[in-house]
Design brief:
heterotrimer; A alpha+beta (791); B alpha+beta (262); C alpha+beta (162); B: 262 residues; alpha+beta; Uridine Diphospho-n-acetylenolpyruvylglucosamine Reductase, domain 3; Enolase-like, domain 1; 2 domains; 5-stranded antiparallel beta sheet; C: 162 residues; Ubiquitin-like (UB roll); DNA polymerase, domain 1
Chain lengths: 791, 262, 162
């Protein structure tokens, strides 16, 4: 029977009511009294020396309050990077300054040069056009390999070259991997690119800075996934504002997908400028601006080699990757191709020897950072593609080749050769489930139907692992993180028994306001409606790290569980006093505290009232009140996994690929709200299909963005996608967090691209186009047609 | 957008007068012009809305049997009103942009802009339609003069398009997947006196007639009739979404499908 | 400045606008009806869809002055008279047809326009009709289900716990 509340129930989302009636409160809906508007003048060239900026005409225009350039930011810090990678020689990565406004040089199209603050946005924009900028254009630095050649134009003149770092992992395995590949019975090699993407949450970024001249406090309203991190980075590293004088509020946020994790120059600008002009300053990004100023994702160029013995056991894996950093290091950029990528290269397999080399490169492009999956989609894509290619070369069933090399259910916990220890999993179960759901036994008949219509049908399989939660803090600290990666929660029980949960996690579509109360209500045996989640405001939530990396329920939820456990412990003490019984005999069920083996009980609400009206209360033993905070730092990552199966039809005349079916059989461990989990998978899969078939952030050789709007950047639309078949009944609970949960936010985007590409290659082979062994994403009609026709 | 003076005349004559001003521009449905102005790529001083001119709206037929579409008629209305009288034209109009764009965008606005990937130019050229303005009538073959260029004079208002109705016709549109314009679109119309094949989205010169296919199809209206033909890739648009060779291939594929679909 | 009077969700509202003031700007900034969202600047995303004289229109691509005198319905006008969710809104909640909520107003307005024109659409018709509304969160699966359900057609309920 479906539950009607608590853990495991598909509770309807309470936040939906305000979103469905137009009463959400997004950052752009916030307008402050006496507010001014900022417009950023951005570089139109990819690379150049700024000779002079003349703002005099702009300053004289109607409505202009002040025009800012880098000169106004002397003594202000650069936008910091939150992760330091050490290269394979033991040296720290190169970390160039990222100024709020360009200092002397522009390094990508969209690099901000000056800002006009005016009475209206239109006036600010009008005036920005009147700013005269004299720039001597320099050669754009675009191709990563060319950027590393001797004598290449440098993006940062104060660095030796364009190499951010040269990272090896596991460096000690380097020679052993080379030897294993040299000795292998069969080696499959694949060269590929993981296409650059733009996250494109539907809400563009917005920031409103509000300096209060009376208290000298600052408030920043911003479209962020993690307001506390923004407060820390901006306050401590950029503007020098202590946390107690700076409040960051991320209200309703319209999607993030990684792109709203980072601290951006625009946030620092509006905060700084509001103190300068003594008025609130608001900036609203246009979509065109978002394309050149939001951090991009992916953009790896990789060669991967998979070695096998004569029995098709994987013996070694080697991967050489060039990872594009863009012009500056975005907040978590250095960690993506390294620790979020190299540690996942074992996949679901027992490959004993793995080595990856990653060269991170500066180019004159928009900075690149995490986008849904972040490093793990890149690892999964190359691995699942090279396995598929190997199966084809060996003439074996791709599912069988995977099964043969899967880590067996009895082998968990499993120490991989790339540092991480998988706690639980059952990959055979998810693969079997996925194949059954996808109806592979009747696939051949469907192929024949397609052939009769002149179409080519194909089936693609991928199996993935991801690492969520990104923890523990002491480990990630050793790996270079400049932040802890715990999460926090305060559970405040009010006198009448209702509860406010203040969480450091941030919901921007994930449904925390519904799912988090389900957990607390289950633990206390009370109605979900009595529990409310508060998030997104540094003034009323404990220091938290925010939402990304599929970490909210696994880390934030665990903190909430720990705080709720403290509440229960204290409430039992109060109940014991009220019932004149021993605390050890008190049981909590269905919102009632009772004395074991008796009919004596006291209701939840009576206990909470006693905590705040402590007339009959053990004041000598415990304090009044019922409010507890917990910080939870996990002992390991969590490891969701799953089998993704895609069925496509290719029109050989036009190259168009239609996704006819998509199946996802995931192991997320325990599930709090199945409806929300399925929605997360749907969205992730749609983004993965988007990456595989549609989306491409492309520059020309001069560094101009070719796909700078929805006219050229192909967002998946309703008619590009099928209904999805989604399952999460294969459950191996996480062993090291209290809920046994693993996280589900990124899985869809990680597992789906290789399934789609494998399916297209399968279709082409079935159609006789056996010369096509790989097509780089996105598999647009043009590219598929060209591959078929050998062009 | 730069600011401008907005005027909304009620008649063609008033609109024509308003358009004689310096830097005055006509506004149809605005589905292309307003986004262009937002990017500050166009900056008229006066914008003359044609949306208040009742005489420019609607679909009817004339004594010659032509379908007459007012220049201010939105795509959705054209699609609805021509569903039985000219199904291929209805199909074309019903595939422009998206539903909200079709409710607002007008045939006159599309034809005056003559985007090289717009749909209507193929339908108009493929039908051999007549463009009617406030001052004259222009044959479709004379109207389209390369991408974003037409025979319209400064201030001239496109008031009506008259479509002769073919015996058979079809529209095949292959989407540019991001913008939903035509990556390539082909309109094939078979008249008693011959076949017209108009192609949009493909050529650097904008909409064009594929005369070799027209000759072959006029002799034998079947997909097989063009099997031996090929379209040269020279002069075809090559961009992020497809090479010239790819577009040339699509022209033939879509023409063949349009013949089968007619 | 031009004076504009429109009827929004049944109420007459007036304001002075520049020539360049878009309907979306007028609704959001001057009438404080912030449910209409702006997600792009090329008339693609559909977050700003409202009904103008009964037809779905992208409010970011219409000048306020050009719809002087029009009847406009926005997301704020879609609830029942008693304030409860309308049929389409309720179906979106029941079938989890929204996540971050940003595209949702446009989706609901487009869905309403579709069902007026085609009361029992097929799945393919729903998907085709939504080509001017971009959602980045849901993969459209549950939006399509919600619209089918709102049209009175049988749709499987959201996944229930085993």
């Amino acid at each position: 029977m479906p539950k009607d509340g608590g853990i495991g129930a598909s509770s309807k989302r309470r936040e939906d009511v305000r979103f469905l009636t137009g009463r959400g409160r997004y950052t752009d809906d916030i307008n402050l009294n006496n507010q001014t508007y900022a417009w950023f003048l951005r570089s139109e060239v990819a690379h150049g020396t700024i000779n002079a900026i003349d703002t005099s005409a702009a300053e004289a225009m109607d409505g202009v309050v002040k025009v800012f350039t880098a000169r106004d930011f002397e003594g202000v810090g650069g936008v910091p990077c939150g992760w330091q990678v050490t290269d394979r020689f033991g040296n720290p990565m190169k970390e160039p300054k990222h100024p709020v406004l360009a200092e002397g040089k522009v390094r990508h199209v969209g690099d901000p040069i000056a800002v006009v603050v005016a009475e209206s946005e239109a006036q600010a924009r009008d005036a920005a056009e009147a700013i005269a900028v004299d720039i001597t254009e320099l050669p754009a630095v675009m191709d990563m390999k060319a950027a590393l050649a001797d004598g290449a134009t440098k993006v940062h003149d104060d660095l030796d070259d364009n190499l951010c770092y040269d990272w090896g992992f596991v460096e000690e395995n380097r020679e052993a991997v080379d030897a294993a590949i040299a000795e292998a019975a069969h080696v499959t090699t694949l060269e590929l690119t993981n296409n650059r993407l733009v996250a494109n949450p539907m809400e563009p970024r917005v920031a409103v800075g509000d300096f209060n001249p009376g208290t000298e406090d600052y408030t920043l309203y911003t479209t962020s996934q993690n307001p506390h991190v923004i407060r820390l980075l901006m306050g401590a590293f950029v503007l020098g504002i202590p946390e107690h004088k700076l409040r960051v509020i991320a209200p309703d946020v319209g999607g993030g997908f990684g792109s709203k994790i980072y601290h951006y120059a625009e946030e620092a600008f509006v905060t700084f400028a509001s103190a300068q002009v003594r008025r609130p300053v608001k900036w609203t990004s246009t979509r065109s601006e978002a394309f050149i100023s939001d951090a991009h994702g992916r953009d790896h160029v990789t060669k991967i080699e998979l070695a096998m013995d004569a029995d098709h056991n994987f013996t070694a894996l080697r991967c050489d990757t060039y990872a594009n950093m863009g012009a500056y290091l975005s907040t978590f950029a250095p960690s993506i191709p390294t620790w979020l990528h190299g540690t996942l290269l074992a996949g679901n397999y027992r490959t004993p020897l793995i080595y990856t080399n990653v060269k991170a490169v500066f180019t004159t492009t928009t900075p690149v950072d995490a986008y849904r999956g972040a490093g793990r989609p890149e690892a999964t894509f190359q691995l699942e593609r090279v396995i598929d290619k190997a199966a084809r070369e060996l003439g074996v069933d791709p599912a069988e080749l995977r099964r043969k090399n899967f880590i067996k259910p009895e082998e968990f916990p499993y120490q991989t050769p790339v540092a991480v220890v998988y706690d639980t999993g059952n990959y055979h179960a998810t693969l079997d489930k996925g194949l059954e759901m996808a109806g592979v036994d009747t696939f051949e008949a469907r192929c024949a139907e397609s052939a009769a219509n002149g179409k080519l049908r194909g089936l693609g399989i991928a199996h993935f692992i991801e690492a969520c939660g990104i923890a523990p803090s002491n480990l990630v600290g050793q790996l270079g993180a400049r932040a802890g990666l715990y999460e926090s929660a305060t559970v405040r029980v009010n006198a009448t028994g209702s509860i406010s949960v203040m969480t450091g996690s941030h919901s921007h579509g994930q449904g925390h306001e519904t799912a988090f109360p389900q957990v607390v209500a289950e633990m206390l045996g009370i109605d979900e409606g009595m529990v409310e989640v508060v998030h997104g405001d540094t003034a009323n939530t404990p220091m938290g790290m925010g939402t990304y990396g599929s970490r909210s329920i696994a880390v934030g939820g665990s903190a909430m569980v720990r705080a709720t456990e403290k509440i229960i412990n204290k409430a039992k003490k109060i109940a014991a006093h009220l019932l004149e019984a021993s605390e050890a005999d008190i049981e909590l069920a269905d919102g009632q505290f009772s004395v074991a083996g008796t009919d004596k009980s006291v209701a939840w609400g009576d206990v909470t009232l006693a905590a705040y009206v402590p007339h009959n209360y053990p004041l000598e033993d415990i304090e009044p009140g019922l409010e507890e905070t917990a910080f939870y730092d996990p002992s390991n990552f969590t490891y969701p996994s799953g089998a993704y199966i895609c069925e496509v039809e290719v029109d050989p005349d036009t190259g168009k690929v239609e996704v006819l079916g998509f199946t996802a059989a995931d192991d997320f461990g325990n599930v709090i709200n199945p409806m929300i989990v399925e929605g997360q998978v749907h969205g992730g899969v749609a983004q993965g299909i988007g990456q595989a078939l549609l989306e491409n952030c492309a520059y020309d050789e001069n560094g101009q963005l070719l796909s700078g709007s929805y006219m050229d950047y192909t967002m998946p639309r309703a008619d590009d996608l099928p209904m999805f078949e989604v399952d999460h009944s294969c459950i191996t609970p996480c062993t090291h967090n209290p809920l046994g949960v693993k996280g589900c936010g990124e899985a869809g985007a990680i597992g789906s691209p290789p399934a789609v590409v494998n399916a297209v290659i399968d279709a082409l082979h079935r159609g006789g186009h056996t010369h096509v062994t790989h097509i780089d994403m996105p598999l647009t009609p043009s590219r598929v047609w060209a591959a078929i026709n050998g062009q | 957008m730069h600011n401008f003076e907005f005027v909304k005349p009620g008649t063609v004559a008033e609109a024509a007068a308003a358009l004689t001003g310096e830097e005055a521009q006509a506004l149809g449905g605005g589905q292309t012009l307003l986004p262009t102005m937002k990017q500050r790529l166009a900056a008229p001083e006066t914008l003359v809305s044609l949306n208040g001119i009742a005489e420019m709206k609607g679909v009817c037929s004339n004594d010659a049997g032509e379908i007459c579409v007012g220049g201010g008629t939105p795509h959705a209305v054209v699609s609805r009103e021509t569903a039985s009288s000219y199904p291929a034209l209805s199909k074309l109009a019903g595939m422009i942009g998206d539903p909200a764009v079709r409710n607002r965008g007008t045939i006159g606005g599309s034809l005056a802009n003559n985007d090289p990937a717009a749909c209507y130019p193929a339908g108009v050229l493929g039908s051999g339609a007549t463009i009617v303005t406030n001052t004259r009538e222009i044959a479709a073959d004379d109207y389209f003069q390369g991408m974003f260029t037409t025979a319209l004079e400064e201030g001239e208002i496109l008031t009506e398009v008259r479509f002769p109705v073919p015996e058979k016709a079809d529209w095949q549109k292959f989407l540019q997947p991001a913008s939903r314009f035509s990556l390539v679109g082909v309109f094939v119309a078979k008249f008693a006196d011959g076949v017209r094949v108009a192609v949009t989205g493909a050529s650097e010169d904008g909409v064009f007639r594929w005369s070799e296919a027209e000759a072959a199809l006029s002799a034998d209206f079947s997909a097989g009739a063009i099997a031996g033909l090929s379209v040269p890739a020279d002069g075809m648009i090559s961009d992020l979404h497809g090479t010239g060779a790819y577009r040339a291939s699509l022209v033939k594929t879509l023409t063949s499908r349009a013949v089968s679909g007619a | 400045m031009t004076s504009v009077t429109i009827t929004v969700n049944g109420q007459s509202r007036s304001g002075d606008v520049e020539g360049r003031t878009l309907l979306s700007t007028f609704l959001r900034d001057q009438l404080t009806l912030t449910g209409t969202h702006v997600g792009c600047d090329t008339s693609q995303c559909g977050a700003c869809v409202v009904h103008v004289d009964g037809e779905a229109v992208k409010a970011c691509s219409v000048l306020a002055a050009d719809v002087d005198g029009a009847e406009i319905t926005t997301i704020e006008g879609m609830a029942n008279a008693d304030g409860s969710l309308g049929v389409i809104q309720q179906a979106f909640q029941d079938h989890h047809g929204l996540q971050c909520g940003f595209c949702t107003p446009g989706m609901v307005m487009s869905a309403a326009a579709l069902l007026k024109e085609n009361p029992k659409p097929t799945e393919a018709e729903v998907r085709h009709y939504l080509e001017g509304n971009i959602c980045r969160c849901t993969g459209y699966h549950n939006i399509v289900k919600a619209i089918m359900a709102a049209s009175g057609q049988d749709v499987a309920p959201p996944m229930a716990a085993e």
